[in-house]
Amino acid sequence: MKKALYCFLALLFTPPMLASEMPLNMTQGVTEISGQVYNLHMIILYICCAIGILVFGVMIYSMINHRKSKGAIAANFHESTKVEIAWTVVPFIILILMAIPATKTLIAMEDPSDADITIKVTGSQWKWHYSYFDEDIEFYSLLSTPREQIDGTEAKGENYLLEVDNPLVLPINKKVRFLMTSEDVIHSWWVPAFAVKKDANPGFINEAWTRIDKTGTYRGQCAELCGKDHGFMPIVVEAVSEADFDTWLVEQKSKASSAAAEAQAALSKTLSMDELMTQGEQVYMANCAACHQPNGAGLPGVFPSLIGSPLIKGAVAGHVDIVLNGKTGTAMQAFAKQLTATEIAAVVTYERNAWGNDSGDTVQAADISSASPASATPSESEAAVPVTLPEIEEAAAEVVEEVKAVVLDDLTMDELMAMGEKVYMTNCVACHQAAGTGLPGAFPSLVNSPVITGPVTGHLDMVIKGKPGTAMQAFGAQLTPQEIAAVITYERNAWGNNTGDMVQAADVNQHGQ
After folding, report:
1. Inside any domain, residue 277
2. 3-state SS record for 269-305
3. Residue 176: which domain range?
4. Cα–Cα distance, 355 to 358 (Å, whole number)
5. CA separation for the pair 230, 214 (Å, rounded)
6. Contacts (Cβ under 8 Å, ≥6 apart) of 417
7. What residues pair up with 130 in beta bridges, in sequence order?
8. Is-contact 452 491, C-beta < 8 A?
């Protein structure tokens, strides 16, 4: 009996004693904060193990020594003031003991003051953009795992899906402050070795910090489900000595100057169709294929096909504009700062001539430069007049009032449905799906939804103002009254809803007043 008891106690105590050596346990990391988090984790683990041993020990002892076969007779009592006090006070004391170190660690994690370096981290589908404050250095960091490995035609590498073309470089023994934001949806910048995990929300700035103790390469990932390629958004940080970091800064500034000179020289070059198509394919596969697919077919209802697309077949200027500036309210990003003029010219040429489009159009770097807003220089009179924020806000308010004052003709049901479908497929389909079925547990279905089939005023209010605490945005400032009227009419009459309701722009203006 004693031997069995010793074996049982050994099994109970061994896991917490060897927890630090277990491969599934939390790692200690390479920063002071990550060490504090690890120690806090171990303290809580030991407390939980002690409680478990005590509770289960009493239960097992009672079952063995007070079983019926031994003639045990249950005690007959009701209530006990001492027991009531004990099981209230003891857990309270335990929680206080756990809260003290937890509070200290949390306070330390939220103190980015007195930083030596500040870096802005911007997430976008599906890449990270890093900007070093006061150093005039910024770059994008993209997944560098070969497509062949992702498709399974080649063996997976050692750091499969955890490797990038441009890692974030940081010095050790320096306090680094991160400012996190996003260009589109919610992302989350997470590097376990630093104990840093902070959401990057569009329109907001979150703060975090770290001070790395050891040189090395540290990897992480986006830890927020941000879209179809969420798993292809890794983070790689190269921690180097202070001297090596200073050298890296000089090299980056030199590369930036050289790149600027090369980009300027490229404006005078004229590439052949073959050269543009070869380079354009490389740019497309690296930056566009994730959404529009390698064959240009897109994903119906989510990302449009480029095969025979009106945009691709239309005027070159419109094609260049959407690549340069993106399209608000969609996943189409602005590539003006991500790609050079030559790369944009090449990818536009490629898209206009691949997959049977065969437009015959060629676009050169000079065409991109002339189309880019950055190439425009203000006149002396424009540059000499400063504009204050109140003046901008007043002008914007006047424009809004002018738009609201426009009296639009009422549209027919067919016109509203046609326009509404276009607005829906551009702004709503990513969440609620082309068939209006939504994504159960994440985005509600619009088929026979109480909002859709209920009063029109509630539907208007939801679209115009959004719903706080959910992913439902406010479209009052993103869409015109006519577009809002059309999409509401479409949603109330599509997919079998068939309410028969028609909403006009005047109804939207009146509701918003």
Report:
1. yes
2. CCCCHHHHHHHHHHHHHHHCHHHHCCCCCCECCCECC
3. 117-148+157-257
4. 8
5. 29
6. 486, 489, 490, 493, 494
7. 121, 139
8. yes
Would residue 382 count as lying in a domain? no
Q: Which amino acid is at 107?
A: I
Distance of CA 467 to the CA centre of its chain: 20
Chain segment 262-279, per-residue pLDDT in tens: 878 878 888 889 988 999
Mean pLDDT of 444-467: 89
- Whether pLDDT at 146 is above 80: yes
For residue 150, what is the enclosing H or E element? helix 147-151
Q: What share of the chain is helix, strand, coil (3-state, %, to 5)?
A: 50, 15, 35
Give the pairing type, strands 187-191 and 137-141.
unpaired
Question: Amino acid letter at 168?
Answer: L
Contact partners, residue 223, CB within 8 Å, separation at least 6? 188, 189, 190, 197
Please give the structure tokens belonging to residue 282. Answer: 């490389």
Residue 505 region, left (φ>0) first, then alpha (ψ -120 to 50), else beta?
alpha
Give the residues across from 269 on adjacent strands. none
Residue 496 resides in a domain: yes
pLDDT of residue 375: 40
Residue 185 in this model has a pLDDT that exceeds 50: yes
Q: What are phi and psi of 16, to 5 degrees?
A: -65, -30
> Do residue 142 and residue 183 come from a single domain?
yes
More confident residue, 396 or 235: 235
- The yes-or-no verdict on residue 15 having pLDDT over 80 is no
CA distance 191 to 256: 27
Helix and strand totals (H; E) in the chain: 19, 10
